[in-house]
Amino acid sequence: MPDYGHDLQFGIFPSPDAATAERTLELAQLAEVSGLDLVSIQDHPYQAKHLDAWTLLSVIAARTSAIRVSPNVANVPLRSPVILARSAASLDLLSAGRVELGLGAGAFWDAIEAAGGPRRTPKESVDALIEAIDIVRQVWSGGTVRAEGEHYRVKGLHGGPRPAHDIPIWLGSYKPRMLRVTADLADAWIPSMGYADPHQLAEMNALMDERAEANGRGPQAIRRMYNVFGRFGTGSGFLQGSARDWAEQLAGLAVDEGISTFILGTDDADAIRRFALEVAPAVRDQVDAERAQRASGAAPTRPVSREEPEPVTVTPTPPPEPITGTMPWDESTRPRYPTPAGAAYSEAQQAYPQHLVDIHDALRAELAQLRDVVDQVRRGLLQVGQARSVINTMTMRQNNWTLGAYCESYCRIVTGHHTLEDRSMFSFLRHRDPDAAPVVDRLAEEHEVIADVLEQVDRTLVGLVGAEPRDASARLEELSSAVDLLTDTLLSHLSYEERELLHPLATYGMG
């Protein structure tokens, strides 16, 4: 069976339970800092216990900076295609191009009708979905929107806004006609376990492939995605065993059935961490190895095992010279972890400390951007002088507000990262490795110091945003000094953490 050659992606599918809204947001942030690609949310507008999908996705997008978001899938009978298109495009613009759009023809018709929606036959629901996709794409194109369908009529509407990027449309489909529609119109196919179990995927793929060949798109035009559910344990069933079992099973679906995106339905933070840090890298390794073998003409040898210990290749990032010349702590008082003699770890083990370095690299890059924004605002302030005109005053205030939002977002990301470490990784290592406990305790103390520095940044932001033009220069200098202090403390802390937790993380993982 085919491997369509798509890059592998991994995501989550948490419950939009209104009673645990903050937990859902934390899971989305955990998915991002763990390196996952997607957060998707089910859409049942008639379900009283659920948060509204679009509102929740908007808040998730606001609390994250890189992970993509999507309904999985949007309830088309209860979502006007025009409003749906504009909602998706608006969030795509506000999130810098991080939106994808999953669509479903509808189910649970009693509930849909109770919510004021139409009751449609299977044929009508597919017909309506086809019409809706056409309208959505017309709106995104920015031209005049016209549709004279049986279910939707749009007469001369001005399209827009255009999204920040070409938003992929996923379709959840199972029956032959919907599979053909997917091959004709969709960018991705998103079935779910329970409705399409692994042994059923080949037949569905074959139907779509045949249609895609006939319509000229080709099978590679449709990304194959899969909503999966399981638990880590010792079972022998699909996604019921160890992380290694999961990786072998998902890699098999990737190379044999062409599934390239796996979205895990779970509200378990530990499962998300294991999925991101243990399963996803192993799946990528196995699929890369098998693709290379197939390209060379060699016989496939899956599963690929890389369990032999190897010399340490993870390189902690050294701290730069302090900008301020002072630090809130004494380097000589920091506890050190006793480096094991002749330490060697498998590739999977070294993935843990490397993942920490990768997360920290993202924080460093964002910090560099923040410093650049501060510098740009400073240069802009010099250009407008003391804002002698109303236009200059407005320009300066707009720059200050932009800077304020950027700083606030970065501070929130750092705080979220440290909170996750305190609650999970630090607690786990403290109990598993007595030698790591002093280091972990010191790192937790430094989190408190950095939290104080972040509060100082926040206070100076408030002063800058509300400052009169004549006071703006002084306020900006205060903010610049606070950001310099944050730079010194944070970069020192990140380097210390990478250096001292390299061996504990390689030995025990992240919990």
Number of E-type strands = 13
Second-tier CATH architecture of the largest domain: Alpha-Beta Barrel
In terms of DSSP E residues, the strand content is 5-15%
Give the overall average pLDDT. Answer: 88
CATH topology of the largest domain: TIM Barrel
CATH level 1 class label of the largest domain: Alpha Beta
Q: Main beta sheet, described?
A: 9 strands, parallel
Description of the molecule:
The protein has helices at 21-33, 53-63, 81-94, 109-114, 122-141, 176-185, 201-214, 243-257, 269-296, 347-384, 390-432, 437-465, 469-508; strands spanning 9-12, 38-41, 68-71, 74-75, 101-104, 144-148, 153-158, 169-171, 188-189, 223-228, 259-264, 310-311, 344-345. The protein is an alpha/beta fold and 511 residues long. A 9-stranded parallel beta sheet has the order 3-2-1-11-10-9-8-5-4, with helices on one face. Strands 6-7 form a two-stranded antiparallel sheet. The two termini are 37 Å apart.
